[in-house]
Amino acid sequence: MERIIVVGGGLGGLRAVESLRGRGYEGALTLVSAERHPPYDRPPLSKAVLAGESDDTTVDADWDALRCELLLGERATGLRLDARGGVVASTAGDLPFDGLVIATGAVPITLPGDGPQHVLRTIEDSRDLRSRLTEGARIVIVGAGWIGAEVATTAAKKGCAVTVVEAADTPLAGALGPEVGALTAPWYAEAGVELRTGVKVAEVGDGGLLLAGGARIEADEVVVGIGVRPQLSWLDGSGLLLERGVVTDGSFRAYAGEEVPGSARPDVVAVGDCAAWWSARYGRRLLVEHWDTALNAPDVAAATLLGQGAVYDAVPYFWSEQFGRMVQYAGNHSASERIVRRGDPTGRKWTAAWLTGDRLDAILTVDRPRDLVQARRVIAAGTPVDAGALADPDVPVRQAVRG
Predict the structure, then answer these.
(1) I want to staple 163 with a disulfide (CB 3.0 to 4.6 A). Which of 125, 136, 194, 327 is the partner?
(2) What is the pLDDT of residues 164-202, one digit of tens each?
């Protein structure tokens, strides 16, 4: 390959550039980013940046040594593919390539209505919202997911009057399921946050929310944290297979037309929040919108693009800091058979584990980091566990493995 284009200026895009050079690629390399900033970390936006403890999360990179042309503030607008390579249409002009990395990430989902609403995706979003979290301000957050809980945590600490509205019957119902999600509900009241579940929002209006039943919730600021969707509009008409993301194989090769053997393109890979990749471990396609995947998956994508052969099948991992707790999750429980509780969920430290038969599929830990580290290794190895031993919080997870 002589010219590779990386579209997307987040962590995934930077890691792709680093991995390509680290794996010996010597040709031309260009990174196109719609943001004006060099790549930066996003997890601190809802944590340290929002709290005022940090103002810059730029990821250290030696761009001169990487010999990468940076096109910041420029947006990809289309993709034309030919038999070998193609052209990225952009606001900076047409960019021909014989290798392409798609790392355009995702954009927040917003609510209908003409009223102002805040989302939390960029450094500007975080700085703007931070300036509005003043003592006594009425902050209404739509969505009791990871982002909603983190924003509620910071807003409450700053003395705001915080209300969280959730359409499901429990927090984190989509991420963890209602049984485990319900265990986090008491944290809101403990922090002085009003949690209203089973409430659907019709629209955002001036001065607050209009609910589906006609009631209103007054607010000085409305924050929407109801999820994201992959940024794929620029790929319309490209011929790539798009279904909740760029559909790829386990090596991140994008499919052209349909998902059949031989239709994955060796010259086009996708990584990060916009990639729906095949996991042999779980026997299904995964769309993992978390920092850990953006950090590690691009190295496999770079190897694939350079013809070096690699497959990505890591155990998904995510963490959240909320209401004074470190919450960590590893694995995938979408097809699990049962849940095993480890410790008292009314206490400060506990764990929930998802199992299928004697296989550990996923784990959620609350202030039990050792459980997370050991369980992640067990999940990766696929070794069977004893559910009875796993349920005992005094037994290390590694000792619950059957010999």
Answers:
(1) 194
(2) 999 999 999 999 999 999 999 999 999 999 999 999 999
